[in-house]
Amino acid sequence: MKPPELWSLYSSVVRRLKEIGQIRSNNITGERGEQLAISYYNSTVGLPKLQAAPKGTQNVDAISKRGDRYTIKTIMIPHKTTGVFYGMGTPDNPLNDKKFEYLVIVLINEYYELDKIIELIWEDLLTYKKWHSRMNAFNINLTKELLSKAKIIYYKDGVKIV
What we know:
Elements: H1 3-19, H2 28-43, E1 50-52, E2 62-64, E3 69-76, E4 102-108, E5 114-121, H3 122-128, E6 129-132, E7 137-140, H4 144-149, E8 151-155
Parallel strand pairs: 3-4
Antiparallel strand pairs: 1-2, 2-3, 4-5, 5-8, 6-7
């Protein structure tokens, strides 16, 4: 296939995924991670049952039946940095008002398949956040220290990331 045909096919797939409720935006990577996380939490005994937050809800992607707020960030392997967290101020003037209780980081492979799910609490975000000057917001890097603190919810084939 030539590039115009591939782009047409891609847009058709995105449109169809929206029609059947698999995605709500054009952020395919983020949407896939949210879908995988919510599905895994809901199908795993001992984990909270989650439902997607209403479209457009700031800083919250899912809500548990207990009312806990979850933000879900998706990283495509081999990358190790999340997208940014807006509304948290700047390094000189941080705003630390609690926007959610849990941060779920979903790692997916190049085929959009689940590889790992990592869970952090709000206070971990405050500890490990790094300033992304180009985006004017904070993000998180998956370091060995952070991973030792994180709750590993799922990892494919029993292999933890380093």
